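Open question from group meeting: does this chain pack into something compact, or does most of it stay loose? Before anyone orders reagents, we agreed to write out a predicted structure and look at it together. Recording both the input and the output here so the notebook holds the full record.
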Amino acid sequence: MNTGSSSQVAQNIRRTGYVILLSYLLIVLIMKVLEANNFFGYSFSTFSSEIFAPPSLKHLCGTDRLGRDVCLRTLQGSSIAIEVVFLAILFALILGLPLGLLSGYFGGFFDKCLTLIMDTIFSIPVILLSVVIAFVIGKGIINASLALCIVYSPQYYRLIRNQTLLIKSEAYVEAARVSGADVKTIILKYIFPNVITPLPILLTLNAADAVLVLGSLGFLGLGVPADVPEWGGDLNLALAALPTGIWWTALFPGLAMFFFSFRSFFYRRRDRRYI
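Structure tokens returned:
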């Protein structure tokens, strides 16, 4: 593949990453607007007398053991999942991006210490680390986001650090340094715009991972509070009713989690060589 073709493919990949991320945020915005304006005519958590009602015209996805509409609860769960994932990735980016820039540019003892810490965190299995952190800091949207942030921040650190090590030795950076540009100018003007190129790809891939990790935390009762609609928590509640033939309370949250992460995992399989 020639240089022009590779550049075009990379641009298409970044564009696709931005589209996927924006579509996630659009879902959150739509659900927040609908919920704030009570578009459905009642609260997502409203109880009804129809316990374990099968899917029908009145309840498209049926109801759960408390009489709550599974369809509406699954829709709100998508908003909660994206909100937690967005905060987690944002926190990880805020932490990993500046540390990676500084570590890669200055090197030395500072770089060795940070790299050792990040590599240690990175070597721990994602599920194990997130479960331990969530157990220590407790339930909540912010707490779940912080647990995921600690898990994913080493990936952003490693990516930005490696990119910085490559770019700081480029001729235009050396020319800027020789011409008298200070460290702040070199980092922000010459290095930063070039090291963030692969970030949309990593953001998209981490979003898929984070949804599954959040679902795992919710299934174990360590994610968001029980009164907050969340796919993993709903799957845990549906597990007891599944042997009795109540399949819809597990099917629809499971499908939502699958389709939410499927696009990003397909994206990972196709374009992992550009990360």
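Observations to bring back to the group:
The two ends are 17 Å apart (CA to CA).
The domain at 3-274 is CATH 1.10.3720.10 (MetI-like fold).
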